[in-house]
Amino acid sequence: xxxLRKLHIKSPYPQNFFKIFPPRFFVAAPIPNPxxxxxxxxxxxxxxYYDEQVYKAGRNGDMVTVGYLLNKRVRDGCFNTIKTFxxxxxxxxxxxxxxxLIQTLSxxxxxxxxxxxxxxxxxxxxxLERTDEALRVIETMAERGYGLNVASFHPIVSSLTRKKxxxxxxxxxxxxxxAGVSPDVTTYNYLLTAYCFEMKLTEASAVVKKIEExxxxxxxxxxxxxxLGACRAGKVEGxxxxxxxxxxxxxxxxxxxxxxxINGMLRLGYYDQAVRFVMACRGRDPMLDKESFGVLANxxxxxxxxxEAMVVLDEMRKRGMTFGKxxxxxxxxxxxxxxxxxxxxxHGLLICMPIFTWxxxxxxxxxxx
Length: 369
Known about the structure:
Blueprint: H1 47-59, H2 63-75, H3 92-95, H4 98-106, H5 112-127, H6 131-144, H7 150-162, H8 166-178, H9 185-197, H10 201-213, H11 220-232, H12 236-248, H13 255-267, H14 271-281, H15 286-302, H16 306-318, H17 325-334, H18 340-350, E1 356-359, E2 362-365
Antiparallel strand pairs: 1-2
Helix pairs in contact: 1-2, 2-4, 5-6, 5-7, 6-7, 7-8, 7-9, 9-10, 9-11, 11-12, 11-13, 12-13, 13-14, 13-15, 14-15, 15-16, 16-18
């Protein structure tokens, strides 16, 4: 497969893409107690409680209270969450407090309180698609030694690759190295997934080469991306080879990985093969079965393939899987009208499925793999 060719890749983008922000000198004075609160703290506060209090203070622009709460919550064992900085929204008036917020975070307790707060602020800014502002936070962490590591960069690379801004994503990788941070396999997986989704297999192959050159261990998401690329390019046989390799290597098969294969087969009109694939994989993971059968049944109904859909729904009923409203209505309407001989013939083909494995679109005995 061309996707597995070893190709040389080097980021062609200059490392000075990012603006070098002037150092900000913050006074690392302890954050004072902002004074009596309107309501006393509960005896057993929760993370949700602190998120709500931080939200109120942040919306009011009260950075002293925000800092106090961020320190206290960690001391109380209520760590920050992805909702901690929800008081920031994608407006200039809201983001006008960013510099003040960065100063506040710089004064948090050293270690986990400060590091986690900075990382979650970066994640929030990326969710708002404000990667330039996220890079300002990165710059502060690098200048002040606030625990900058590869995880701090992940939301930025993820955001850029989701928006198909590949040149900028590669520049962030270069910026990571400038800051003394080595990209990890997760970083490359974001790039790989974006290329595979766009069916840019040459670029995807180059990312695989980069992973190999840097001695990084691939993971389930690496395989998931490659299988996605193969399926979108119409190379379902290659995707099945990769899936077999993934399973043989002991990696957990993600729900999305099976969905890629199912969708790839259906795009090529391989309806019966898609049913056989799902049947062959059944019984290993109940949740995966529910996801795969449900995805396939809904797709077959949408594609106007009632016979194959009823085979899948029969198997779901047999295994005690629940249907959604749409599938329930479809099943009840078709259960009396289907051709029994047609259904029996398809079921007959599937009886021997447990002793077979897919590879290259063919059924091969496990003993021969």
